[in-house]
Amino acid sequence: MSHQKEILADYVSVADRPDVALQLPTGSGKTLVGLFIAEWRRRKFSERVVYLCPTKQLVHQTVQQAKEQYGIDAVGLTGPKSEFSPSDRASYRTGAKVVITTYSALFNVNPFFDDPDTVILDDAHAAENYVAKMWSLEIPAGEADAQPLHQGVSGLLKPRISATAYSRLTGDWVNAADASWADKLPTEDLIEVADQLIAVLDAHADGYRGAKYVWPLLRDHLQACHLYMSSRGILIRPLIPPTWSHAPFQNAKHRLYMSATLGSGGDLERLTGRSRIDRVKAPPEFRKAGVGRRFFMFPGLSLTEDECRLLRADMIKRAGRAVVLTPSGRQAERVKEDVKAIGVPLFEATDIEASKTAFVEANQAVAVLAGRFDGIDFPNDECRLLCLDGLPAAANAQEQFLVAGMGATALLRDRMQTRVLQAAGRCTRSLQDRSVVFVMGGDLENYLADDRLWDRFHPELQSELAFGVEQSVDQNAASFLENLDAFLKNDAAWEEANEVIVTNSADFEENDEPAMNDLSASVAHEIAYMKAIWSGDAERAYEASRQAVASLGYSTLQGYRALWHYLSGSAANMVARVGKADFAALAVSQFDMARQSAPNVRWLAKPRAQIGSTSEESVDARDSNLSVQVEQMEATLLALGTASDRKFEKRAADILNKLGDGKTFEEGQRLLGELLGFTADNTEEAGGPDPWWVAGTSGIVFEDHANAQSTTVFPIEKARQAAGHPKWLTANRPNLAEVNFQVILVTPCTIAAEGGQAHLVDVRLFGLNAFRVWASDAIATVRTLKVMMKGEPDLAWRAEAASALRSNNLDIGGISGSLTAAFVAFSFK
C-alpha cells in the first residue's frame, strides 16, 4: 500500500542510526513493513536479525504471515533454548533467516540470542512489562510458592508502614479502596532496611522461581530500586529498566521499534531505557483516517452491571463468535463463568496460541483473553463482536502508584491510550473491517464515553465514540440487541449510521497534549539519572535529577515533578550519608519542593522525618488525612462514572432513602462515608459500634439511635457503650490501632438519664434530623465536585475537592469540630 511504501522510503534515510521508531497504526500492515526491513537488513548487511513479539501466539502468527503472505522464510523460536533444533540454531548464528521470538527470549539472564545485530521490537508500546520484567522482582500475594517470601518481606516492612497498609499488604481487606491500594516504601526506608531485605531475599530466592533469576540482577543495586506495595503483592524494580546493562540489547547495531503510536512525551525511551530514539511517522493522510469501522456500545450508560452481563451473553449468542478482553485474570474468570452459563464453547489464550483455526471455524465460540490487548488479530468474518471489560490503566504496581498515588496521569497517557485503542482494534484490521465494541467496566466507560477526553483521539474515532454514546443513552436491552442485528445484517440502516459517523468526523479535531513537550525534554535527564544511580554514583544522579525537574514545568505534570524533586532529595541524602554534609540541606530543600509541587498528593504528606527531612516543620495532620480522603473520594466517583450521572444519582438516592428509615439508617451512613471518601465499615458483632469512617490517622465512630423519639430519654447504658467504641475498635480491628477516633452520637433525643454525663464528656452530639439535612447538603457538595471531574485521576481536581471539603467542614476534623459535646447539649434527669 502507498503508506507502506512511503514509510519504507523514510526509514532508509535513518537506517544507519542505532534507535529508530516507526509509527504504523492498527491495521496499517505493520507486520509486513517490519518483516520487509528485517529481511532487507539480513540480506544487505549480512546481519543477524531478531524480531520480537510480546507472546508465543504472536510469534506463530507472524511466522505464518512471513511465510504464507510475504514469501519470507523466517523461523520461529520459542520455548527452552535446549529444544531448538540444530538447523534453527544455525539459521540464527549464520544469519540465514530472520528469527522471530518473544521478548522474554532476549530479555533474560542467559539468552540464546546473545549477539544480534538488529533487534526489531514489534508492538513496542507493549514492551514495557516484557522488557522491565527482567529487572522486576514480583512477590504476589496469595500464591503458595511465593508465600514464605511475601511473609518475610511483609514482616520486615511492618514497623515502617501503617497498620492499615500492613493489613492491606497481607490480605486483610474487604472493600474497593483496599483492592486498588498501591504505595511505595520511601527510598530512605528502603536503604535503611537494605541489609535485612538482602538477607530475607537471599534466604528465599532459590525457593521461589520468580526471584531466582531476577534477584541477582537487583541485589547490588537496591539504591536504584523502588519497593512498591499493593493488595496484589510486592514489587521491587528500578523506575526505568536498565537495558544498557544487558549486552544483547545494548550491543546491537540497530534497534527498530514499531508502534501504533509513537507519542511525543518520551514514553518509548522510558519503556526501553534509550536516551534518544529517532521517529518516522506514518504519512499524514493515513494518521487522520481510521481503519475499519467500530460501533461502540456503552450499555452501562443505561443498564445496571447485572443487566449488562446478561445483555453481553445475549449478544454473544446472536453474534456467533466473540472475543472478550480483560485487564486481569480475575476479571477474565468472571467472564468465563458467564460464558459457561450460556453453554457457548470457551477458548483461552493457550487454546489459540499456535492456531486460531478451531475458534474461527466454530459457529459459536468465545475467546476470553486476560491482558492481551495487542497483536491478536480477528479480521473480516473471524469475529464481529469485541467485548472490552475494564480499563488497562495500570499494568503493574509502579504504574498504579504513579497514577493513583502521585497523580502522574499525563506521564502514562500515551501508554494507556495505546493499550485501549489497540484493544478496540483487534477485529478491525483493514479499511473494510467492522466490529461492535461492547464496553463494560466503569473505568473504561469513563475513558471512552467522557467527551472531555476525546480530543486526544483522531477525528473518526471521536465520531465513532459520539455515535456510540448517543445510541447508548436511555436505552433498554432490546434496543441494544436491535442495533446489533442491524449491524450484523450490514443493511441500509447500518449504512445510514455509517454515513453519519463519516460526516460528523469533520466536527472533531485531534489536539496534542501540551505537557508532552516537557516530558520529551526531561526523558534524557531521567535516563542519565537512572544510569548514574544504577552504578552507585548518587552525586551525578542528583545533578541529572535536578535537570529533569527543570524540564517538567507544565501544570499538569505537578505530580511527576514532585516525584523527581523527591528522587533528587533521595540522591542528595545518599551523598550526605557518605560524608558530604552540605548535601543534607539540599535533600531537605528537594523534599520541601516535592511537597510544594503537589500538596494534595497523599504520599508526600507523610511525616517529613520518614522521607529523610531534618527540618522542624511538620505536615499538618488534618491536611494529610484530607489528602487521603480526597484520593479515596476520587476513586469512588470515578467508579460511579463520569460519562453519565445515572449511577451517582442512584447511589445518592439510595443513601438518602436509607438514612430516612431507622431500620436502614446505619447502612445509609456507611454508604455516605464511602461517598465522602472515607474508608467506611460497620459490624454486627456483639458490643461493636455502629458505622465508622476513617481517613488516614483520624476517624469517626458513630453510636446511632435512629429509632428513638425526641421525647425518649437517652439511657446510661447507651452512653457507656458509645464512650467505649474507640477501645473496641483498637482491640478488634488491628488495622485501626493508629487511628484517633472521635465518637459521634446521632439521636433525636435532647434529654439523657442522670449519671450519663461522665460517659459523654468526649462524645459529640449530632441531632438525627440535623444529620439527615447535613447528609443531603454533603451529597450536594460531592455532586458539584463530580461535575468538575474528568475520567481520570487529576491533581487539579484534588485541589478543588480538598478546598471544598475543608470549607464545608466535610473532613473528619471539620465534622467533629462543628458539633457540640453531648454532655453540654443534653439536659439530664
From TrEMBL:
SMART domains: DEXDc, HELICc2
UniProt keyword annotations, A-Z: Isomerase
Signal peptide: none
GO biological process: nucleobase-containing compound metabolic process
GO terms for MF: ATP binding; helicase activity; hydrolase activity, acting on acid anhydrides, in phosphorus-containing anhydrides; nucleic acid binding
Pfam families from the UniProt entry: DEAD, Helicase_C_2
Keyword Isomerase listed: yes
Top EC class for this record: isomerase
Enzyme Commission number(s) of this protein: 5.99.1.3
Ranges of residues in domain Helicase ATP-binding: 11-280
Name of the protein described by the UniProt record: Rgy protein
